[in-house]
Amino acid sequence: MRTIARSREPSPERARYTYQNPDLIDPELKCPICFEPLLDPVVMGCCKNTLCRQCFFVDSKECYLCRQDPTPLQDPPRLVHSMLSRIMVKCSSCLLVMPRDEFRAHLHNVCPIDCPNGCPITQTRSSLSNHDQFCLAKVIPCLANDVGCPFKGTRETMDTHIQNCFFVPQRLLLLKISQLEEQQQIQQLAIEQLQRASRKYRMIWKTQPNTSRVHFILRGYHFRVQFQRKGEKFGVYLHVIPGKKDADLPWPVQSTFSVQVLNQLRDADHQRVFSFQTGQHPLNFSRPVGNDLGRGWSGVIENVPALKPEFCVDQMVVLLLKLKLTSHLI
Ligand SMILES: [Zn+2]
Ligand SMILES: [Zn+2]
Ligand SMILES: [Zn+2]
Ligand SMILES: [Zn+2]
Ligand SMILES: [Zn+2]
Fold this sequence. Notes:
Elements: E1 17-19, E2 41-43, E3 50-52, H1 53-56, H2 78-85, E4 88-91, E5 97-99, H3 103-109, H4 128-132, E6 139-141, E7 152-154, H5 155-164, H6 167-196, E8 200-207, E9 212-218, E10 221-230, E11 233-241, E12 255-261, E13 272-277, E14 296-301, E15 317-325
Antiparallel strand pairs: 1-4, 2-3, 4-5, 6-7, 8-15, 9-10, 10-11, 11-14, 12-13, 12-15
This protein binds zinc ion (ZN) (5 copies).
């Protein structure tokens, strides 16, 4: 037999019905403490008497009947449950008679109650909260309550009030203003973020000496660098390509761009550098339009024996890309 967890949960339904024929109920089905038909019955572990769960908690340390420890409590036989569930009860509110185990569903879903707002539509307990959202007799505040309208009235009178309310048109205006303020704050944040962003881009790029590309964004400008071996030399190409923020950026891009092919064996004095200022080629670094990806500037890194071991180790070259914006940025 399984033991039962303790519970102090009272039955909210109990006060809402009476027993139809209390004298005809089998005394075996009644609780020896409250003398009512058993409700949520439990069997005492000590003397095997059956009580309502609630009645057991009146004095739970020792059995009310035999003074011994009543734990662990046990579940009564299924037969007891089914006999109890068939006892007839009468709803104190609508006087309907039904088996006791149907009473809870009756109370919530069938038994009629008046609308607490006083409208003539009869409700059940389960439909009440839904009805409340539409009940015409419900007293609600004016929708401009948040901007100072003190009016409260039934839902039925609200339409007329809103048409004449001084605060409602103000509220729409205030809402519009606060929306605009919010948008402005978002824009301000974006600007501050841009201002905090670095003006410099630096990248160590390990790549094969044949054609390869890298793409990066600096303060909203989209750049693409192409690197290519041309016989014994290296070619470098810098593109500015269309980006989402182009409309807000100053053009042409003013920047210093350089590519250094790192000497992988010797010291820093033997690096080979190629660099230029984008501002010196204003047409090529003005705002790109549509599919205009052809503009930019290219150059050849001289004096780099492209495949010699100091520049090309395991078929890889190492490049240092640097781009520093000098445009007047917000
Ligand atoms: Zn009892
Ligand atoms: Zn006992
Ligand atoms: Zn009822
Ligand atoms: Zn109502
Ligand atoms: Zn109002």
